[in-house]
Every structure is written in C-alpha cells, then in structure tokens.
Amino acid sequence: MIYDIFYVSKKTISDIEWKKFCERFPSAQKIENVNSIDDLKKKSFTKFFWLVWDDVVIVDDFAFDYRVDKWDEDYAHVFKNSCNGTESYISGVALIPKKANILKKEFDFKFYVNKKEIDVVASKYQYPIRYISTYDEYLNLINEKSKSMFWCVWPDIELVDDSIFDFYFDPNDGKYNYDRSENHVYKNSCNGVESYLSGVILFSTEKTISKREFNRRFLVDKKEHDLVVSKYRYPRYVIHSYQEYQDILKNETQQMFWCVWPDIELVDDSIFDFYFDPNDGKYNYDRSITHMFKNGDFYDGLMLMSRSKTLTAKEFNYRFPVEKKEWNIQVSIPVPFEIFQINTFEDYITTLQNTKTEMFWVIRNDVVLDKDFDFNSYYVPVYDHFHRNITHVFKNGDWYDGVVLYSKNSPITKKEFDHRFPIEKKQHNIVVSNPKPFDIVFISYNETNADKNFKRLTDRFPRAKRIDGVKGIHNAHIEAAKIATTDMFWVVDADAIIIKDFNFEIDYIPYYNRNEKDIFLDTVHVWKSLNLVNGLLYGYGGVKLLPKKLILNMDTNTTDMTTSLSKNFKVMPSVSNVTEFNTDAFSTWRSAFRECVKLSSKVIDQQYDLETEERLIAWCSRGEDKPFGTYSIAGAKAGKKYGEDNINNKEKLSLINNFNWLEEEFLKWKTINE
Prior knowledge:
Mean pLDDT: 92
C-alpha cells in the first residue's frame, strides 16, 4: 500500500522547490495555504498520509516506504528532522492516520501528542539555494517571501564546501531572530586570495540590498563568516568539434571558459583555480585572448578560451590560435595512442574502424619489442597535421618492417600492408623491435638417444618444441608446422647434436626487405651435418629452416621431402650439428638405407652426379669400426640397390618414408644375413 504524500505550506510553495520535490517523488501532491489537519484529510484517499512541510528537504536515503503495524494504526508516526546536525522530532516528516484527532495547536507547532517516534532521520532544515544573475531575480525572491531566507550562489563561482547549505537558524529558538533578519556573507577565493567579493550569501527577506550592492556583489550591512566556501571558476567543457565550440560561444554567459580536449589526460586539475580577477582592470587584455598550457612537451592541450576572441575552424582544428598566450605549465599529458597486435589486413581494417585515438600503434606477431622502448614517449602534436596524417615506421633490426604508427585519417591499401611498405610515410631511425626468432621443432620417432638430445637442445635453446611418435616423415613435419607460430621454423632431427658454435639466433638472422620477402618465404635452407659413422659433411641430418606454408601444403607422396618442397633450395655453408644416427641396429640400418635410396635413384633435385657417387661410395664402405657401423654399410648397400632397381617407380620409392615398411625390410635383411 502506497500512502498519499502531501507537500504542505501555510503560504504559497515555491515553484522551484516543488519541482525538485516532485522530480524525486512524482506521486506527491502540492497543498498550499493549509490551516488545519482537516484540509489534508479531505484530500487523502488512503488511511494514512505523509505530511512534509516545505521548509525541510528529504534526505537522500529516505523513500517513504515505511509501513504501519496494525496495532500502531492510532498513532501519528513522526520521523526525525535535522538542524545543523542536531536531530529532533520537531518539524519532522510525519505519517498521519486519517482517523487521528489532531488539534490545531499540535498542527501549527508541528508537534503531535499521540505519536510514535521513529528513530530515522527523514528530513533536514535547508534554505532554498538559488543561482541569481540579475537584480530583478533577487527582488522576485525577496517579494515572494515563501521563505525567510535563501542562499545566493553567483553564476561564476564554484562551491568548494556545499555542506554550508546544512547551516540553518533553528526556527524554534528565539535567539536566532536577529540572525534571520541579517544577510550573511561567506568568503570567496580568487587565485588563492580570499575576500568577501562574490562570496556565497545567505539572504534575509527582511533586509533588502540595493542594486549597486548586488551588481558589485559587496554588501554594506552584513554579517561576515570567516569560511571559504567558493572559488571563482570558469566553466569547463569537453569539446569534440568546431560546431560544439560555436554553440558554447552562443550560450555561455561567462567571458571565458576551459576547453578540455577528449584526447588529453589532466595531471594537475588545480589549474582550474586559475582566474583573472574581474575586479582588477589589469587583466582586461588577458580576458580577451586564448591561453594555452603544456600537454606533455607541446602546447596542444588544455585551453582557456575567450568569448571575445573567436577562433577560426582551422585554428580550432589545428589547436593553434594565432593570438594566444602560452604558459610554461604542464597540466596534461596526451592520452596514449592505442596499441594493437595484428597480423592481417582484415585485422587492420577492423582496428581502423574501432580505434578511439587518431593515431594507433600496430605490432606484428613476428617481431619482438625492445623492452626499453616506451610507446608513450613518441607523440605527434595535433597542430602538426602533416605528420598526423601519414604512417610512421620504425626499425625492426635493420629494416623498417616492424612496429608502425598508423594514422586513422590516412588508411593504407592491402598491398602496402602485406608488403609492409606504406607509400606516404616517415621512417624513424630507432630500433623498436627485432624479428621474432623462428620456432625450433625437434622431431623424434622412437630413437634411442631422442630424450637425451632434446634435453641438450632445450638446455641451450629453451624455446624449442617437440613432435614425437608421429608415423611418417611427411606427417611428422606437418605436425611440426602446426605447432610453429612463425612463418619459418627450424627442424632438428632426433639424432642431431647441435655443435657449440652454432646458434639459431646468430648464425642466420633472416632480415629481408619487401622485395626479398616472397622469395625468402619460399626457400628451403639446409645446414651441413657431420656424419659420425662415415665422416661425410653435407646436408644429410643437418638443421633445416623450412617455410611453414609450404610444409602445410606439401605433397606427402614425394620421396625426398626437403628438396621437393620448393625450387628455391639453399645449402648453407656452415656446420650445424653432428648426426648420431648409429644408436641401435635398426635405426642405423634404416637411416643408411633411406639416404642411399635417395642418392642412387636420383630423386634429390639439383644433385651433382659426381658428388652423389662419392657419397654413395662413402656410405657403402666407411665406418665399419664405428658403433653399429656394419649396419650402416649394410643398410647403405641395400638402399643403393633398391634405388637403382626402382629408379622410375615413384610409388615404390615413396615407401622409404613408411617406417613400418622399413622395419619389415630390415627384418628380411636380418633373416637372410645373420
């Protein structure tokens, strides 16, 4: 049940106060010129009604949701009222039973005999607060006499202590009769100097001031309180466009106002205390021009604008007024340009549409940032429109293809993005990043020494990953490509021991420019390996750098995977490792068999016949004294014969990548020869 709420006065009710009350409690009713409780009973449709006198305000947390218990229905329920922090039940909000017999004296004194006191503060005394600009507005309030006193807050000051509005002369205490007939003035501050000029005033309707006093904001006959409750303040606006600026010029009444740009962050808001004393003529010129304050190292931040000096659209947009005064005071910093990690043109377009800053950083996923680079240290001032509308590129190692600062105003094309070569740009000779090291993937399949070699690898290069137990050479490399996060990735075989002089980061750092990129990403790189059995030194068992895209899309039926991937095949001059494939009989025989099938069948692209013959001879004759050396020679001879017998049989040659078939062949050989 919602009880009626009556906002009551024995006189007329101020339209302003009624509007404020009604906005909070829309169901309330305004009742003026009330003489007795009966005037309210006639208007009530509920068995209880709320009585609120218009000389109090309802506190923020009171909601008229109290409900009366059945056994308390004969009592007026009275809530506490506050006056200068002192609580009492006089003039407090009351919930009145419609059947109650309340005498006129009780009603007039707002103090009921048959009552129940509720220990809840529902209201407080407060004089009306008015923002007055003209003497006529002041006289209307004096003549209205709806209240004995009212607060005057001048339009160009800002309150610093609004608790002053809780100050009230207790109407039930006669010692304040004189105070209620006096005007009370509080101090105002201007640039830290205190005075009673333009200070907040508590006006009495019993003492009218002259027009001269009002216009000067300095009363002759007054009571002064040594409390600073206000400051001169210019209004603040966050301005996004020239149209908004023009609208402010039309509507703002103060001569000056602050422009807070949306892309700055204030670091010293005490600047808003800055004010040109309106009573001092020496500041007349200052009030007629634009004042600019430092935004970081540049003057493109906070502005104090004058209505006497209208800026052109160009001056506004460039934040560069022709006539201005620059103050060497840093009060703001630029809002940092947003940073995005993207790798595709589609990501770039999405970022372009959604970024909130005029410029934005882009970091590709194949670069490693310099830990000492501070993105916030690089800023393009707003008035530098040329550099605000082009792309800024920074060094990625030796090339300008890493971190980029893009302009939202100048989108680039897909070709520019993909080639990392914006046409209209500024190159900054600052190394901000380096190419991300290519992933290292260790591939193993039941090799005896695999775990030991992988530990050796990760001890030196902790980022190395592993693919283990995948059947088939092609399939194992495809799985390796899937876990690689870089466009190229290193492959280390399970029987490889990286030599101490080889370093994946230092031995070969693949910087490339826009013309070399496509070729580089289509090239297979192979390093030399030292064969511990026969002493050969060439690409067999060596570290490889493979293009991820080519591996994921390769033909899985080829005999020699490495040389068939691309027409671009690059043999690197240095040695990467020793190959320790002779750890058990089968592994040794299998390795020699596979390599000699490829050599004798001529499936290795671009191989030299003389070089191939020399290698076949070495495989088939050397290393008998090495561990499992006889199995290496036997596997080589069997492989040489199988390759020669099936030189044009692609299907049979591809069987060397099937480890189950190889194991069967080994067992056949073993049965015959042992």
